[in-house]
Structure formats: C-alpha cells, structure tokens
Request: fold
Amino acid sequence: MRTKPTTWGALCLGSVLSFWAGAEAEANRGELNQASVSEVFMDPPFWQERAGVYERIQRQRAILVSVRSQSHQEHRRLRLQGAGHVRAPKDFAFARAIDFAELPKVSPHIVEARYNPERSHLFLHTRAFNYHARMLIHLSFPGPQELSSGQRAIDLQILEGVFAGMRARLLFHPVEDQVTEISLRGFYDYQSFPIPSFFASFGLEVVMQRVASRLRQYVEDSYVRG
Reply:
C-alpha cells in the first residue's frame, strides 16, 4: 500500500538545510558513498545513553537535539539526532506527519512542496534565516520486520540539491496509549564543510528545536480538536 509523503521529517530536514543554502553546500555532491541507514542507526541515540537525559524528555517535555561532526574512516560525518514526546497516539501522530495538504499551515519555512507518488519523490523549496534551499527527497517506509513492535518510520534520502546524499529516519515509537516518542536521526558524510563548524552545530540545533516544537504543537492541537 502506498503511503502519503511525510511532512514532519522532510520539513525538519528542509528547514535546517535552508540555513546552509547560501554557503554553496552542493559542492560536496557525489564525493562520497553514503552509509546505509541501518549501519548508522545500529548505535543507541544519545538520549538513551546518558543518565538523566531521557528523564528530561519524559518529565519536562524537553525536545533534545544534538548535532556533531566526527571523524569517520577517511572523511567526516555530520550526525543529527533529536527526540521529544507528543501527547497523541502513535497512529494519529503518524497520520498528521504525512498529511501533505497541511504543510503550509504547519510552518512558514515551506515555500513549495510537490510530491510524485509514482517515484516516492518529494520536492521541497524551503526558507530559513533568509536562505533558500531546493531539494529532491526520496521517501521509503520500513516494514514491521525492520522495526521494533508497534513502531512506524519514514526513511529519507536527499537525492538532489543541498546536501545530496544525506539520509535520515523519522521514527514513531508508542510510549503510552496517548503519548508518542518521535525522533529524527540523520547523517551526512563529507570531506570539507563549507561553513564554520560553530554554525553547523549550534545554529542547526536551534533551528531543529524550533521546528520540532512547532510541529509538536500542531499535532497536539489537532488531536485535542479531534
């Protein structure tokens, strides 16, 4: 069965990558073969590894984000991670995340979005901090055999445009009947990064938290309204 395109994961990626668009980030296109999603996501995320961190997500409703650049083989790897809880059932949250028609209501960062269901391609034109980014994203939907019980996920790969080759997974994990943990984990391999590392980490974390907070509010308001 074909699934509608994601707005949540693509919106997060599109918005944060717009921050880099003015730096001619496409210079790194095609330099490196990107690792598989399963290889990168084999390690537990930071909120499960550090004592007390997950408690902030549970009790304080914190949206936690980490962006780090690390040495990896003969190149560098930018890793993006973020998670938070949404007060809505998993299936409802997932349905809102793939409600393509609602994109303009969710965030002013989206200028244009077009989806090709035959190829599972989503074209996004996004805007952030007066920078614009245009990208073509391939969407795929892992089956139950690839996920833990009860989870749903959307895998994204940027095919063309800013940071072509970046991959990410948007995961919906049921915590309770009325609470869903939504996480985004992504990576990008590169030889040289076109902007100062401070902006690549701090600036990106700020934008990711801002977008995630707005999306959570949208889902929770929609659930309350019924």
In short: The chain has one domain: 8-225. Helices lie at 8-18, 37-40, 46-49, 53-60, 90-97, 103-106, 197-225. The chain is about 30% helix and 35% strand.
